[in-house]
Write a structure and sequence with these properties.
- The protein is of the alpha/beta class.
- Helix content is 41%, strand content 14%.
- It folds into 2 domains: 14-39 and 288-384, Aspartate Aminotransferase, domain 1, CATH 3.90.1150.10; 57-283, Type I PLP-dependent aspartate aminotransferase-like (Major domain) (Aspartate Aminotransferase, domain 2, 3-Layer(aba) Sandwich), CATH 3.40.640.10.
- The strands form 3 sheets. It has a 7-stranded mixed β-sheet with strand order 2-8-7-6-5-3-4, sandwiched between helices.
- Helix 9 (182-192) links the parallel strand 5 (164-170) and strand 6 (198-202).
- Helix 2 packs across helix 13 and helix 5 runs parallel beside helix 6.
- It is globular.
- The protein binds pyridoxal-5'-phosphate.
Amino acid sequence: MELTSKLPGYGASIFSVMSGLAVKHQAINLSQGFPEFNPPIELQEAVADAMRKGRNQYAPMPGIPELRELLALRINEWRSVSVNPETEITVVPGATVGLYVALTALVRPGDEVIIVEPGYDSYAPVIELNGGVVKRANLKVDALQRGESPWPWEEVKSLLSSKTRLVIINTPHNPLGCIMEADDWKHLVDILKDSEAKVLSDEVYEHMVLDGKQHISVAQIPELAHKAVAVSSFGKTFHATGWKLGYLCAPSYISVELRKVFQFLAFAANTPMQVGAYQFLLENPDYEFTVAQLMQQKRDAFLKQLTNPNIEWLPCQGAYFLVADIGKIATKSDADFAVDLTVENGLASIPLSAFSKLPLPGTYLRFCFAKNDDTLHKAAQIINQLTGLINP
Ligand SMILES: Cc1ncc(COP(=O)(O)O)c(C=O)c1O
C-alpha cells in the first residue's frame, strides 16, 4: 500500500539523523540545539509543586492569565511597548507549534512566503502544507564571515510581489548566530512600506544576544509590529527544550485568528509547566539576563580552545551555535564530512547545507555550544586534531 505524501521530498529531520548517529557511535553531540544542563532547580521545583497542588487539568486556551500578565509586564518593560496580555499573548506547546499555528492561520493556498536560508527547517514544509509557495532569499554567509550584515535585502525586495503574504525573520539566527540590527530592521521596514505582507519573527533565542548587544524584537518596530507575530520559546530560555512551551505575541486582530487555529490543534499548553514558569519568573525577575551571560561564557570558553589554524569560525552574535568554515580541510560535502566526523572522530555536528536548498559559498558545519565545559573541552580537542582530511 502507498499513501500519496503531503510532504514529498522531506524525510527524517537532520537533527534526528545526526543525534541518532551520535548515540549509535557514542559521539560527543554538538549537533542538535539543546543544552546539556538542566533548567534551574527552582523552576523544576515550581513545576513539581504545581502538579502536587493539583494544577493538572486543561489550562485556559490562550494560557493561564497570570503567566500572560507577567510576560506582558516583562515584554513591555524590556521593549518599551504595550502588549495586552488578554488579547495579544497566546501560550503554546513550544515554538514549533507556534510557528505551525501562525503559518496555518496566515498562509492561504497560492500565497507566497519569503524565507531566508540557511534557516530553521520547519518553515518551508508548513508553508507548503498550507498550499503556500516558498520564496527563498540567500543569507550572505561570506558577508557574515567578513563581519558585515548577511541579510539579503536586495533579494528579499526582488522576491516581494502582490502575492507575498508573509516574510519570515529569525533573530538571533539559527544556524548562523547573526542578529537583526537596527539597520536591518530599517531595510525591512523600507521594503514592506507599501506591501500588505505580514512579518513572522522567530525570536526563540531572544535572551541569547552576546557581546553586550541588545535583541531587537519586531514588537519594537512600530511600522511592523502592527502586522507581525513574534515567536518565543521557554524551551530555549529555560534550558528545557523537552518541555515544549512557548508563546506567540501578535496584535489582537491577528491573535484572534491564531487562537482559532490553536484551539483545534492543541487547545492549550500543559498546565503545570505554565504555573511553574509563572512562579519561577515571578521570583526571579532578572532570570532572562543570566541566560546571555551563561551563553557568552560558553561561547568564549569554547572559542578560546579552538586553535586549529585551518578552521575559521564565523562571528556569532547570538543563539548557541558556532559555524566552522572547513573549506581548507574538506574534500567532500559538508554532509559527508559531518557523518565521518561523527563516526570516525566521535563528534557530531550539523552540516550547514541541511538548512538551505540554495547553494552555499563554502563548506560549513554548525556546532551547538550549550554544553558542559568538559564536553566543550573534549570537542575542541577533536576539532584541533583535524589536520587534514577525514577518510580521504
Ligand atoms: C529558530 C528556531 N525556531 C524554533 C525552534 C523550536 O523551538 P521549540 O523547541 O520551542 O519548539 C527552534 C529550535 O531549535 C529554533 O532553532
